[in-house]
Amino acid sequence: MSRILVVEDERHLADGLRFNLEADDHEVDLADTGEDALRLLTEQPRRYDLVVLDVMLPGINGFEVTAELRRQQLYVPVLILTARGRSDDVLSGFGAGADDYLTKPFELPIFLSRVRGLLRRHEWFRLDVQNQPGPATPPLSAFAFGDKVIDFEQLEVRVGERRMPLTLMEAALLRYFVENEGKPVARKTILDRVWNVHEDTDTRAIDNFVVRIRRYIEDEPARPRHLQTVRGVGYRFVANPELVPGAPLQV
Q1: 3-state SS record for 112-133
Q2: Domains and CATH numbers, the chain
Q3: CA end-to-end span of the chain
Q4: pTM of the model
Q5: Measured between alpha carbons, how far is 210 from 239 in angstroms, rounded to an integer?
Q6: What is the band of 50 on the pLDDT scale with cuts at 50, 70, 90?
């Protein structure tokens, strides 16, 4: 059973979310301020499997809570709830380190689908491939290219002695690119296969999310060699661009 922290200052909404999450077989705690949420999450870092976090909170807002968690290297998955679906709000959430977002008002089945998707991906990355029986082809645990290593179990990118932690969403997207190395990946495919979003969603958030990831894996993020733009389609990951003659480099 998963334990979820719901951070929502409107009591009737918080109680409704708790009721439906408990009906979906989750344990739920509530907090109504960002300060209380940070206290609960930092006092017991491993207590929660997911945080459902409203953006508009009294005091510290949801973006600031997320950013502080990541500064303290706490990488519990965070689902941001925002009353505004503007791209800059979405990007603020991803920029702070959120793993997904949902715009209010939302339908309950969509909310529960997002929660289940984040929890599944959390377990996926926590899987100890060496100690647990797995499928015939175990999940990719790490990928090395050039002087970089993407460690999907530790949720980090290593470049020499430098270590850059990844959020669950960043690791999920990087893994999908690596598993489809050399193939163009459409933005809509990313929405469906990585973000588990099936409804119509503004794909511009993906473009800005990719900009964030390029900062981890590119020597010159403004001139990407590994995570290339395929104009009119989406993106393509190339581990060794020098071995791909004529591969277009677009930004």
Answers
A1: HHHHHHHHHHHHHHHCCCCCCC
A2: 3-126 (3.40.50.2300), 142-243 (1.10.10.10)
A3: 43
A4: 0.68
A5: 16
A6: very high
